[in-house]
């Protein structure tokens, strides 16, 4: 069972776009992972505009870090799919589609946990999971 970066980053961005408060555990995890990875917060804010295709290692590792902070990714890089699915609010638009692609995209693998997180996020993005 493996899952990744953008699931959470996209969930947070989708929640913000949907007008919902971003959960405190994601806010706290974001702050901690910015500190751990040295990622410039402005880079993180611009991801929805610039896209993830050319993400650098700091961005990729930020995703893996955040997934660990919220209990979705283990230290060995494996992902708890059920934990990831439980983070998607039941009343969120496209709930079933998001859950479906968590199940589909979790199989994406990279050379390390950062690459795996990025690959999963790209799978979610490529399949336009968060679009209406």
UniProtKB/TrEMBL annotation:
Q: Which SUPFAM superfamilies match?
A: Insect pheromone/odorant-binding proteins
Asked whether the keyword tRNA-binding is assigned, the reply is no
Identify the species of origin.
Answer: Fopius arisanus
Q: What is the name of this protein?
A: General odorant-binding protein 56d
Record Pfam families:
PBP_GOBP
A Gene Ontology CC term for this entry? extracellular space
SMART domains reported in the protein's UniProt record: PhBP
Known CDD domains for this protein? PBP_GOBP
One GO process term, biological-process aspect: sensory perception of smell
User: Which InterPro entries does the record match to this protein?
Assistant: PBP/GOBP, PBP_GOBP_sf
- Tell me where the signal peptide lies: 1-19
Q: Which UniProt keywords apply?
A: Signal
């Amino acid at each position: 069972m493996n899952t990744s970066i953008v699931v959470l980053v996209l969930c947070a961005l989708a929640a913000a776009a949907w007008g919902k408060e971003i959960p405190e555990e994601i806010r706290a995890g974001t702050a901690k992972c910015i500190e751990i990875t040295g990622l410039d917060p402005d880079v993180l804010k611009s991801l929805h505009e610039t896209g993830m295709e050319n993400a650098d290692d700091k961005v990729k590792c930020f995703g893996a870090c955040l997934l660990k902070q919220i209990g979705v990714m283990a230290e060995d890089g494996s992902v708890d799919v059920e934990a990831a699915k439980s983070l998607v609010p039941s009343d969120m638009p496209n709930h079933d589609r998001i859950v479906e692609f968590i199940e589909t995209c979790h199989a994406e693998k990279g050379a390390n946990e950062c690459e795996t997180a990025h690959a999963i996020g790209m799978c979610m993005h490529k399949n336009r999971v968060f679009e209406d």
